[in-house]
Amino acid sequence: MGKQVTEMLKGTLEGIVLAILSARPAYGYEITAWLRDQGFSDIAEGTIYALLVRIEQRGLVDVEKVPSEKGPPRKVYSLNAQGREYLEEFWKTWSFLADRLEQLREGGK
After folding, report:
1. Who's near 86: CB < 8 A, 6+ residues apart?
2. Cα(67)–Cα(62) distance, rounded to whole angstroms?
3. Which residues are paired to 26 by β-bridges?
4. CB atoms within 10 A of CB 49
5. Degrees (nearest 5) of the Cα angle 102, 2, 31?
6. How many CB atoms lie within 10 A of CB 47?
């Protein structure tokens, strides 16, 4: 099941990260650690950082540099209004797909 989960996760990871940020601001390592705690152990930090750069460039998050005890300041990401709209659309799409998949599993009813 590992490879299949990884492949499915690629298509939904952006929405998952935005959902995490809708609960509270976070920085990249924090998001990666939370995902790993939830059982997504194959997620590389680099994957999350690249995704954060993309959603920042698309204007879905606000970024604040916060001093770090170790090294350079951390970039803390928080969901902004545009990101919340995008996340709402993600959940609508997710619900649509989940409903259709469930129908298929039940025999196409």
Report:
1. 18, 60
2. 16
3. 77
4. 16
5. 90
6. 17
pLDDT in tens, 29-63: 999 999 999 988 888 889 999 999 999 999 999 99
Q: CA 64, CA 77: separation in Å to the nearest integer? A: 7
Q: How confident is the model at residue 64 (pLDDT cuts 50, 70, 90)?
A: very high
Strands 74-79 and 61-66, bridge-based pairing: antiparallel
Alpha helical stretches, state H, 1-109: 2-23, 28-37, 45-57, 81-105
Q: What is the pLDDT of residue 95?
A: 96
The tokens for 56 are 């920042």
Cα separation, 70 vs 89, whole angstroms: 37
Q: Centre a 10 Å sphere on the Cβ of residue 76 and count the other Cβ atoms it contains.
A: 18
